[in-house]
Amino acid sequence: MPNAPDRVLFQRILFTAILLLLPFAVDALLGRGWLRIVDFAMLYIMLALGLNIVVGYAGLLDLGYIAFFAVGAYCYALADSPHLALAFPQLFPDGVHLSLLIVLPMAALLAGGMGVLLGAPTLKLRGDYLAIVTLGFGEIIRIFMNNLNAPVNLTNGPQGISRIDPISIAGVSFNATQRIFGITFPSVHLYFYLFLFFAMLVVFISRRLERSRIGRAWMAIREDEIAASAMGINTRNLKLLAFAMGAAFGGISGTLFAGFQGFVSPESFSLMESVMVLCMVVLGGMGHIYGVILGGLLLALMPEILRHSVVPLQQALFGKTIIDPESLRMLLFGIALILVMLYRPAGLWPSRVRRRELSTDEKTR
Amino acid sequence: MNLLELSGMVKRFGGLSALTDVSLHIGRGEIYGLIGPNGAGKTTLFNVITGLYQPDSGEFNFNGKSYRSAKPHELAKAGIARTFQNIRLFENLTALENVMIGRHVRTRAGVIGSIMNSRATRLEEKACRDRAGELLQLVGLSRPHQTLARNLSYGEQRRLEIARALATEPLLLALDEPAAGMNPTETENLKSLLEGIRNSGITVLLIEHDVKLIMGLCDRVAVLDYGRKIAEGVPDEVRNDPAVISAYLGVDVE
Question: A213 and B128 in contact by Cβ < 8 A?
Fold first, then answer.
């Protein structure tokens, strides 16, 4: 009978092995297109975890979160595409092509700064009012991206920025098949590992913060801001910190997104995307890291699963397509939201504490 | 020197003058009572002292420093801790976490330290957890410390609030009606808890309606009525003060 630490170690090794083999399994069983979808799901998980800091821990409802994703994405797009060379030939004759390792911290910092910028005027707002202001902020960023092609063409407007360099680290391009130790790694596999690394990093940081003095202070603000300040918590600084941390994670995810997709345009950063990320957090289980990961996975994969199953299913049953997958998706999504809010208001996989809270609610009812 | 000195405190809400020219001082190690009919301005005075309200005018000195427009967290750091009349715990956090949050102002771990989980952070976290456990013992919370605050009984929530306030290492502990809704046994326990707190060197400021508790516990008592201080002194003096009697019972009109 192995003792507890051994078992934990075994579980971790098993878990790591599964994650490392996952791209090969998905590739073999479902095809490469699905692995690409999984890669996108990882980006969404990072986003959801970032928003979880703001919404789940500090209790600040943010409806414009996708703006930070946009900031990260445009950061990388500008720093690693021919766009600047075309728009400002005198300034950047050869364009800028910075390494991801430089752009990533820059984007995280810039997005974090934007987070503070959003946080500062909204310090006194809570709940619905905060949601409206953050929603406005998200739209402002998107509209800026949409219109900043004149008088100076910074973002290329609605056409977006294309021909973005694929991510490459230390001369190894992620856009080509690489052979390492005799194993062939196609591009999507490489991106999977890259995103996995950053997603794990975000999980790690979230976990450490959750159980720290900082995380407790955030939760105190979420529970009762007045009591928190009376206990000596500087609510202003900690709320700004939450906005900045969440935004920085969003910026990292956006940077990776731009490198992966090779193209960014304002329409990827619509309000609907903010709502989607918020739903991942709420459906999964606000304030619970694994719940949020589950929420992110479900909501990122569900539309694709529908797309691949609904049409063939209808063809087989009725011989024609009656409901197109896109409208079915919104229908199912709406129903799912209602059901979750009715039967699992703390989310599909709430944290232990929240689950306990829920069960006592039922008892006292 | 006095721990807390207020002079000429004025606080208005629109046309309503909640505090009019209130002056008082509290010496170190005292238990100071604040009584008065409902709406007399006791809680307003509390909120001014703890930084939730900014006074319109008046001097506010604590521990030798002026704190006229200080924020609540600055006053908590300076050493004023409070409880609330309508309990304000962090309901969905555990009892232990509630008290640990009280340690926030006396601990230092920042973002980097927390992420790195450095040795200093781990030691501080352990000390914080241990101290929180001790304080829960001190106020006599017998339930598992992992119980959610919202699931505690009313009396336990009141005591948890005191433990949370004590965790900030206050010089002045301000309690807003700690005995409200308690039965006589619980009130008796509260009384001995407060005496213990005073004996450990913490000054106590107490708002209370339970006159027996106030008279048996306080060194000095001030009476507020319509935002004015109408009497101050040792309990026996105040009890027989005609102004106090008329404020509580009304005046004879004959």
Answer: yes
